[in-house]
Amino acid sequence: MEGIGSLQELVRHNDFFVKIDLKDAYLTVPIHRTFGLSSAPWIFTKILKPIVTFLRSQGLRLIIYLDDILILSSNAEGAGRDYLFAVSILENCGFLINLEKSVGTPEQVIEYLGFIIDSKSLSLSLRPEKTAEIIDLCGKALERVSVSLREIAKILGNLAWAIRAIPFVQSHYRDLQSQYIESYNQSGGSLNSTIVLDQNSRQNLSWWVANVRESNGRPMSATDPDLTIFSDASLSGWGAVLNEVSARGPWTLQDRNRHINELELLAALNGLKSFTSQVSNLSVRLMLDNFTAVHYINKSGGTKSPALSAISASIVDWCEKRQLSIEAIHLPGVLNVLADQQSRMRNESSDWKLQKSTFQRILALWEPEIDLFASTWNRQLDRFVSWKPQPEAVAVDAFSLSWTNWRGYAFPPFNMIARCLTKIMKEEAELILVAPVWQAQPWWPTIMELASQPPRIICPEIALLSDPLGNPHPLLERGSLLLAVWILSGNASKTAAFRSEWSSCSWDVTVRPHQLATRAHGTVGSVEGMAYWSINVSRSMLSATLYNIEGYYVGKHTLVIKLMLGIFNSNPPKPRYNSFWDIGSVLSYLEGLGPDTSLSLKSLSSKLVFSLTRHNSSPLICPVSCLERYIFLTRDFRNESTNSSLILGLRSPHPPIVASTIGRWIKLLLSEAGVDTTIYSAHSTRGASASKAVSAGLSIESILRTGSWASESVFSRHYNRPINKEAFEEAILDGEAIRDEL
């Protein structure tokens, strides 16, 4: 029997349509009661067959379904003429024409058999009344706690009717259909039984309510495919080919336990994802050598296998998001050679997956944005670039892309490391690179040159690298592979700044040929001569970046604590200076400068900041008189912005000075007074004054209170002698006065 299926092959672009509806079709043909109504449609079709044959012999293109006749013509005049001719023939044969339902005016959009046919877009869609009915039926079922099987059967009938008008329609009622079949069998075939819809069935109905109007309409006939993808699966992997470009991948241990039919469907899905991730609005033809997979793709699932239906649903979801039309065709296995070869090829020896927990630590440190060397099974980030086409890869071949647009993460095959370093330098890019610590490799000096932050050694463990089946890397099993993660930059200023800082604080400077090269016996020797406090900073850094050891942070492990205690005891903190300069010589120098009124602002500033204490024994070194003179000289420089600052700069506009400037002035004065400032800093005045007080015999309690030292042990460790606040200034400026008091 003819119908919409025949029409799809007959209609042409921009055709005009007319329609003839026969009135009281069955009643016009007497049928013996014995045959009944069940055979009436078949008999009526047979009776009309000679008439239809005659009309077609006269050149009329038409489709007939029972009593509905649709005539097609390439122009309006021809359609009108064919309509009149067909009507006259039918009436002469004794048939009645239903003029109310017939359409004699040629149209390019017409309703036929419940569908809207549009020759301009060559599309088929449901009537608005039909979509409203579907929404109403599905909506009412969702509102109820339980639904009868009869109601579900009615819903499924309406949804199945929409197959020709809505793409992938079966996929959106498979769960409801499966629950209906299961419940129907359990009820013994009673349609009056009621069931509670499960979550998946309710999701099916919700999709129809929300999307039937938007999804309504699909092409009437299959167009020539834009892409033809060959796919195949073996028990070890999958393969796909498009225009001699291949894609392949291994099965994981979990996938290997699947049935071969599931693997064939997964191979088709992977091939589809590999070659269509960046396209849309295309027609795709899949060539497979498995009949079951072909059926489940073309039917958008089935009722026999939930696992196959789930994979089919993934295929539908992928195609719907990209508006791809898809068709699967069976290809004998002997002809599907290329895809079969790809599915059976062994996994690349350089294809390994880094342990997820290790990558999470890298992610916490540097936050990469894209994985540049990955495949579907071992990718670390959602956005990844594959070497060959892979499902869900954002691009193919990382070397063909610019690396300057993002911070990339790369764990490339080891033979591509040198090429990666060259690209980093060429593009001045930034890259997080995982590479083996192979100092004998030609690229090792380059990787050190491009480092912009300290590298992190990855703790070697058996499970660090694994293949698709979970097998560890053989070099890790032998304990002969050590990996490090580097953050590299092609920006010369970044790397130069890092090397300058790193060479002075972490590596031996005297024996290395390169700024980042370690000594031959390792980095432990680089702590020789370092103070306990400097080593303790390194301990904190290691504790923050390395894995825990036996459940302890590295810095809190008992062995590390004992080691640090030994370092402290073997090299206890020492005073910065073995001896202090004589403060008396500086005071004599200040006296030799003459009266404050004769000093320049520069000399007066240095003298003032050196000692701000009231003393009247010698006017030439009295800080009070010096301060009075300083305020007098700087009176013209002061304004609202500088009134709160005592010491001002020497150059116009004489801004307030900072601590470093005061220190520089003190060192200048000490230098002019004959003190070696290559040894002593400005802060040494504190120790020199205290030592002078000690030599004058002041009590340690006075010195502790005046100098704000935490304890006697701190003071004694640095100054060796214990000074009375009332006599502290005199002890420094005039030792004779103290001796007289004693």
Automatic annotation (TrEMBL):
PROSITE patterns in the cross-refs: RT_POL
Keyword Phosphoprotein: no
Presence of the UniProt keyword Transferase in the record: yes
SUPFAM superfamilies in alphabetical order: DNA breaking-rejoining enzymes, DNA/RNA polymerases
Pfam families: RVT_1 (PF00078)
Keywords: DNA recombination, Nucleotidyltransferase, RNA-directed DNA polymerase, Transferase
Single GO term (MF): DNA binding
Positions of the Reverse transcriptase domain: 1-117
CDD domains for the chain: RNase_HI_RT_DIRS1, RT_DIRS1
GO biological process: DNA integration; DNA recombination
Protein name: Reverse transcriptase
Higher taxonomy: Eukaryota, Metazoa, Ecdysozoa, Arthropoda, Crustacea
